[in-house]
Amino acid sequence: RASKPVDVRFERHIADEKLQVPPLLFLSFLENAFKHGVDTQRAGAYVHIELKTTKQQLYFQIENNYNPQERIAGSGAGLENTKRRLVLLYPDRHELQIQDENAIFKVSLNINLY
């Protein structure tokens, strides 16, 4: 649906194709990358996603650029709900890092699966 060119990259390295995660676990991160990133850029927008698993670990990272002058104010409910969901699903077994520097937003999530 983007009305301008967007560099979307998705790298995945899945050790076990039968591995399951809760439905829509990564959706708010992806939605935010487009809403607060792609939609604010006039040109050069990108969203880079990486998903890796081993038999015991899941690693997810999403990075996007944004235009600070066009930043959309929001309640942050999606991100806060995802944080709470992770605490409920993976108590003491996940690490979520959120970085916002130099007009680049990056989310990194590590989950110990077992």
Explain what this protein looks like in three dimensions.
The chain is an alpha+beta fold and 114 residues long. The chain has two helices and five strands; from the N terminus they run E-H-E-E-H-E-E. The chain has helices at 27-37, 77-89, and strands spanning 6-13, 45-53, 57-65, 94-101, 104-112. The protein has a five-stranded mixed beta sheet with strand order 1-2-3-5-4, with helices on one face. The model has no long low-confidence stretch (mean pLDDT 91).
Number of helices: 2
Helix coverage percent: 10-25%
Biggest sheet character: 5 strands, mixed
User: What are the secondary-structure elements, in order, as H or E?
Assistant: EHEEHEE
Q: Low-confidence spans: pLDDT under 50, at least 5 residues?
A: none
Taken as a percent bin, the fraction of beta residues is 35-45%
State the total count of DSSP E strands: 5
**Structural class of the helix and strand makeup?**
alpha+beta
Question: For the largest beta sheet, what order do the strands appear in spatially?
Answer: 1-2-3-5-4
Calculate Rg over CA atoms: 15 Å
Give the terminus-to-terminus CA distance.
38 Å
Summed over residues and divided by their number, the pLDDT gives a mean of 91
Envelope shape: globular
How is the secondary structure organized here?
Layout: E1 6-13, H1 27-37, E2 45-53, E3 57-65, H2 77-89, E4 94-101, E5 104-112
Parallel strand pairs: 1-2
Antiparallel strand pairs: 2-3, 3-5, 4-5
State the gist of this model.
This protein has 114 residues and is of the alpha+beta class. The protein has helices spanning 27-37, 77-89; strands at 6-13, 45-53, 57-65, 94-101, 104-112.
